[in-house]
Amino acid sequence: MLRLALRTLRMRKGGFLATFVAAFLGAVIVSACGGLMETGIRADAPPQRLAAAPIVVAGQQEIRLPKHDPAEGKLKTEAVALPERVRLDPALADRIRATPGVSIVVSDVTVPVVLAGSQALGHAWDSAALTPYTLTAGHAPGDGEVVVPAGQAKPGDTIQLAAHGITARYRVAGVAAARTTTEPTVFFTAAEAERLAGNQVDDFGVFTTGDPSTVAARLNLGDGVVALTGDDRGRAEFPQADASGTDLVVLSAVSGGLSVLVALFVVASTLTLATQQRRRELALLRAIGTTPRQLRRMVLGEALVIGVLAIGAAAALGPLLGRWLFGRLTDAGVVPEAVLFRQGWLPMTVAAGATLLAVVVAALVAARRVSRIRPTEALAEATVERRWLTPLRFVVAVLCFGGGTALSIVTIAVMTGPVAASTAGPAVMLWAIGVAAISPGVTKLMAILLHGPVRLFSGVIGWLALANTRTAATRVSGAVTPIVLAVGIATANIYLQTTQQAVSQQTFTEDLRADAVVAAPAGVSPELLQRVQQTPGVAAASEYVTSTAFVTTPYDESQDEDGQPALGLTAEGAAQTTSAPVAAGSVGALIGDTVALPETVAAELHRSVDDPVTLRLGDGHEVTVRVVAVVAQPVGFEKLLFPAALLAAHTTAGLSPQVLVRAEPGVDQARLTASLAEATAGWPVSVGDRASLLAAHASGDEVGAWVNYLMIGMIIGYTVIAVVNTLVMATARRRREFGLQRLGGFTRTQVLRMASVEGGLIAVIGVLLGTVVAAGAIVPFCLVTTGSVLPIGPVGVYVAVVAIAAVLALFASLVPAWVATRTRPVTAVALGE
């Protein structure tokens, strides 16, 4: 049967090519997503500035939080990544030096610096050996001196630097360069760097006299400290690599899983249609004695040959697509540039397995109906479509509709705020799969419902198109299903994203009472804050710090691995720069180790004013704070409010990056920003108005939206190709039918008009069903987030989706019909299919 399968493929190039394209694109996309997942799992970021040190000792960038209430006696915990750099005690250097095999220990600190208006990083000159840097001019820095990168200044010059909120003038002692890093770096003396870093160490570079791995195993570092060797040293230099790797794993897993489902349906739809178009041929084989098993083996053999060829072609292009996608994510800032793209043999193996599974399942489903008919009914079965609702389709439809309904109920009854998208998203695929399972029947029903409008606008031609659609509902549904997938996935995901962005921006806008912002890349010092507060026209000013906190006591059942968003504010300006209503206590008491809890969090923790709460801040530091206020915040957008000094000290920067400013009554934004610019002249800061604050928040949301659009766009592009693929194949195989119609009196123009009406019907049915699929996810989500059944977003998005579906359906129906009708009618009938 394999030999026969190979021969039939040679004679069925159209169906072969269509199935090959569907399987090939599915394998390419799954392989690319697998490469992104492998990259995220590895999170390889080879060291650059720390490349010369064989061992790097750094803080462990994760903590373990209880998964269950400790009061219940359960000890299960989960690892949680920390968003801020974990710093070390300088005294740890003595313990490291005492380890046998250690020759030199170099303390490394990092300080944000503003040099000549651009951002750089400051380090101690001692740590230049960790790269290593070499002097190209001048000498090592002394008191009041610095070493700068090439092109910034020359030895002997005097420059102004801002570091850790302090602006000072330094003499340039020398110029240094390194081959392994392009990061602008300024070197201070060890004492100056230690003072600017607040007497904390980022990491230690350890040089050894023996094997680094052996020496690293001997180090007695204590809890929360790790010794890194090889490429793992890059994790100390780029702690954000692990967090971005986790995000990349989640992103690729969701996109890859969605791709597998889409590929399964597209391949099944294409292969089923190709098999149905050969029912006469397969029926004849049954009539001459071919057994059902032999027929299934032949169809399966054909599918396996196509799948293997598709996998072979995809093996080369999958990594290329993965690398291109990774480049786009890097350009968008989702993944640090230091992370390397890695794709080994495993992603392609998974893609090959998923593709073969889709092909085999599709082949078995396609061959099942034809192989089960009796030989005496073979020819009759080949000419008339009968049963379309099989037990398998019925079970799949019931399960998917049940699952989609359950997710919708959970979205409305349980979910709150943006997290509602976590259940709304999967509901799209469940609704789509359910509709696809019963698409022949739904297609026939939709054709009946559209009978009146179609006849009204297209007359007899429309009647014939409707008759063709109803009698060949199974064939037509093969073209409708990809349109349903494309319209449903595109509409749902785009409007879920735009609604979520709009709600987030609206919430931020309503909470923001500030009229201007003073941004300080080198950090906000007390002197700068005081100058801003004393500027004419300023009613209040507050530092503004964002980070994350993890509640440890009491146990927070609602807290996930992302922790609780945290916001640091200055007590005297907090109430006037943010508008969260205070339900109890006062945000003016945010001084020292205190916190203001949102009402929902306070209720979850059973805490009120003056109660203690123990939590870990973004760098893992544990602190017990006193609740001084309970504030009302929108559900889903809650933030813990801390004193800015407390929260900023446990961020990577170490200081607040900006100051929010509220104008006095009667002072407009233009006058306020002008006053602030004049008051901060000479300081390394920038002044912006309220619009710049809103734009900055919107741009942060746009990064996540861009990533979502990129991955969804890739999948939709695949389904669009599948639409064209399926329609071209379905229309091109109707040459005999078109020939008979022309012999019966139809002109070529009338046949083409009929084909265009059929294409329009396919587009309308696909768009309507796709809209229903999208609504199954959008409506519950919008009810939770906005209280309306309609999403927030431009109507043009939906119009564009509908227009693209219509153009594709018409183009893919008319062009093959035009080609098929070029042959003389008698010749077309004689040649048959």
What does it look like?
By secondary structure, this protein is of the alpha+beta class. The protein is 55% helix and 17% strand. The protein contains 26 helices and 23 strands. The strands form four sheets. Strands 14, 15, 16, 17, 18, 19, 20, 21, 22 and 23 form a ten-stranded mixed β-sheet that branches. Strands 5, 6, 7, 8, 9, 10 and 11 form a seven-stranded mixed β-sheet that branches. A hairpin with a 5-residue loop joins strand 19 and strand 20. Helix 2 (13-42) packs antiparallel against helix 7 (240-276) and helix 14 crosses helix 16 (473-511). The two termini are 23 Å apart. The model has no long low-confidence stretch (mean pLDDT 82). The chain crosses the membrane at residues 248-274, 303-325, 345-367, 394-416, 428-451, 472-496, 706-730, 751-775, 795-819. It is a multi-pass membrane protein. Keywords: Cell membrane, Membrane, Transmembrane, Transmembrane helix. It is found in: Cell membrane.
Low-confidence regions = none
Apparent shape? elongated
Count of discrete alpha- or pi-helical segments spanning 4 or more residues: 26
Number of strands: 23
Entry keywords:
7-stranded mixed β-sheet, 833 residues, 23 strands, alpha+beta
Topology:
Blueprint: H1 2-11, H2 13-42, E1 55-59, E2 62-66, E3 77-81, H3 92-97, E4 102-108, E5 111-115, E6 118-124, E7 134-138, E8 145-149, E9 158-163, E10 166-177, E11 185-188, H4 190-196, E12 203-208, H5 212-218, E13 225-228, H6 234-237, H7 240-276, H8 279-287, H9 292-331, H10 345-372, H11 378-383, H12 391-413, H13 421-437, H14 439-449, H15 451-471, H16 473-511, E14 516-519, H17 526-533, E15 538-553, E16 564-569, H18 571-577, E17 582-585, E18 594-598, H19 599-605, E19 612-616, E20 622-631, E21 640-643, H20 644-648, E22 658-663, H21 669-679, E23 686-689, H22 690-732, H23 735-743, H24 748-785, H25 795-820, H26 825-831
Parallel strand pairs: 6-11, 8-10, 16-21, 18-20
Antiparallel strand pairs: 1-12, 1-13, 2-3, 4-12, 5-6, 5-9, 7-10, 9-10, 14-22, 14-23, 15-16, 15-19, 15-22, 17-20, 19-20
Helix pairs in contact: 1-9, 2-7, 2-9, 2-10, 2-22, 7-10, 7-16, 7-22, 9-10, 12-13, 12-24, 13-16, 13-24, 14-15, 14-16, 15-16, 15-24, 16-22, 16-24, 16-25, 22-25, 23-26, 24-25
